[in-house]
From TrEMBL, chain A:
Domain of life of the organism encoding this protein: Bacteria
Gene3D superfamilies named in the record: HUPs (3.40.50.620)
Classification of source organism: Bacteria, Pseudomonadati, Thermodesulfobacteriota, Desulfovibrionia, Desulfovibrionales
Family from the record: Belongs to the universal stress protein A family.
Protein name: Universal stress protein family protein
Pfam family, one: Usp
Natural source organism: Pseudodesulfovibrio hydrargyri
TrEMBL record, chain B:
InterPro entries given in the database record: Kinase-like_dom_sf
UniProt protein name: Protein kinase domain-containing protein
Organism, as annotated: Pseudodesulfovibrio hydrargyri
Length: 162, 319
């Protein structure tokens, strides 16, 4: 495992942009780092839309906004001193929006574990994520990606940026 | 009204006054216009509308105009028809508001999934002339679990020793049903006491009403598990025990003084979940399951299976 391979998980929120800025500030001056920006697609629940076209329209909008966010996060890292060649982006599509038999995709049931599996596959020893600052009750009801990452990441360094 | 429908009404419901017979609807989009005496025609069958369903919440009658209590004229069977109502509304969960959506297609999908499973209500979906998916539901003949438990005539200790083991058996079965739903990627969405019935005659526990959905990603089944915990704690306590009614329980002053925030629900903060403090004969292992829903918990159940893994062995500790 290589601690200089850094995975930054983003969800488009201000919290995740803060994590990107923090990582840029810490890593920008160093050498030998490789940063992987990862977004696990979280499409809106299909059942919340009266028809398929309303849902897919919202999905396209979500996808466009998140790809823009990844570009913006990449620019932040480069502005912080990480050269373009050391930063890559990965947008993991939701299986719900993919045709049957498509390659790797996210089932969206446990985003923290999906982030971890990418970290394992890519040998990333450092994980960076923004913290929403949820209460215990909110975590109980709605879950917390950062807390799950902390609990499940073995032998890896996790930066939770508040 | 057509002669055909009039004839059906006269044949199957001779007691129904023909002068009250209204219109025949094949398009249910405007469900507010459909009322007592109207007939909904679907898939070659006719449903005489008797009344709108309603819920009694917080002492108020809350009519559900899109849910019609009907009589299927061709068979004489009582049915509930749920018409399409795309509603987005905030659902209050403790101190939180959750954006909730009413999804007919979700309920239709689950009805198909559980068509042969006695642990759920049954029904079929038929499209009306406007392609609205109308759910035609069999009525579960039974009593809501909360009312069933509350009505058992025994003080708490006698109830807990003599009745609760059987209640727990039924509840475990009901939890396994929810676990089976989750395993297929579906959630119930509205687990509460009035959506779990104890069927008359068979004693089978059966879930109803699964048309709520939410946009949760990291913890898609969290609300269902929260609901199961609430029902379990209610059943073990034989009622909800909260700051408002503890005084009526006849508990010693030192018991009441010994209750702290950590003994209360994590989400509904005035509700006692540490029932062993009120009823010391509750086994510690069972109480430990309740405490996963308390303010002092550091560990949550992520899945129904985790919840059941700790709850199942408690059954053996009871009579």
């Amino acid at each position: 495992m290589d601690f200089k391979k850094v995975l930054i998980a983003v969800d488009g929120s201000e919290n995740s942009l803060r994590a990107v800025r923090y990582a840029a500030a810490i890593l920008g001056g160093g050498t030998g780092y490789a940063v992987r920006l990862v977004h696990i697609e979280r499409l809106p629940e299909r059942d919340m839309f009266p028809d398929e076209s309303a849902w897919s329209g919202q999905c396209r909008e979500h996808s466009r906004a998140m790809r823009e966010f990844l570009d913006e996060a990449g620019r932040v890292l480069e502005a912080g001193g990480l050269s373009g060649g050391t930063v890559c982006s990965q947008y993991v599509d939701s299986c719900a929006a993919r045709p049957e038999g498509a390659g790797d995709c996210s089932h969206g049931r446990n985003i923290a574990l999906e982030i971890l599996s990418i970290a394992e596959r890519e040998d990333c020893g450092t994980l960076v994520i923004g913290r929403r600052g949820v209460s215990k009750a909110e975590e109980f009801l709605f879950g917390s990606v950062s807390n799950k990452l902390i609990h499940h990441a073995k032998d890896r360094t996790v930066w939770v940026v508040s | 009204m057509s002669e055909e429908v009039r004839g059906l009404v006269e044949r199957y419901m001779p007691e129904f006054p023909v002068r009250r017979c209204g219109r025949v609807f094949t398009d249910t989009t405007q469900f507010m216009d459909i009322g007592h005496g109207d007939v909904i025609a679907l898939g070659g069958l006719h449903y005489l509308v008797l009344k709108d369903e309603s819920e009694r919440r917080f002492g108020m009658e809350d009519p559900k105009y899109w849910v019609k209590r009907c009589r299927e004229l061709e068979t004489g069977e009582r049915k509930i028809l749920k018409l399409v109502f795309y509603e987005r509304f905030p659902l209050r969960v403790g101190e939180f508001e959750v954006q909730c959506y009413r999804s007919p297609k979700k309920e239709s999908r689950i009805l198909d999934l559980v068509a042969d499973d006695p642990r759920f209500m049954h029904g079929a979906t038929r499209l009306d002339d406007h392609d609205n998916p109308v759910r035609i539901l069999d009525i579960v003949q039974g009593r809501e679990i909360g009312k069933y438990v509350y009505a058992l005539k025994a003080g708490h200790e006698a109830y807990f020793r003599e009745h609760f083991p059987a209640v727990l058996d039924g509840f475990l079965d009901a939890c396994e049903a929810i676990g089976a739903l989750h395993a297929q990627g579906e959630k119930h969405g509205d687990i509460r006491r009035d959506h779990l019935f104890v069927e008359y005659g068979t004693g089978q526990y059966r879930w109803i009403d699964f048309d709520y959905t939410f946009d949760f990603h990291e913890n898609p089944y969290g609300l269902d598990i929260f609901g199961l915990g609430n029902i379990l704690i209610y059943c073990a306590g034989k009622q909800v025990w909260n700051m408002g009614n503890l005084g009526e329980g006849g508990f010693p002053a030192e018991t009441l003084n010994g209750l702290g925030p950590g003994d209360h629900s994590l989400v509904i903060r005035n509700r006692v979940v540490n029932l062993r403090k009120l009823f010391p004969y509750i086994p510690a292992e069972l109480n430990n399951v309740f405490m996963h829903f308390s303010q002092q918990t550091e560990v949550f159940y992520d899945t129904v299976e985790e919840f059941l893994d700790e709850l199942r062995p408690c059954r053996g500790l009871l009579g």
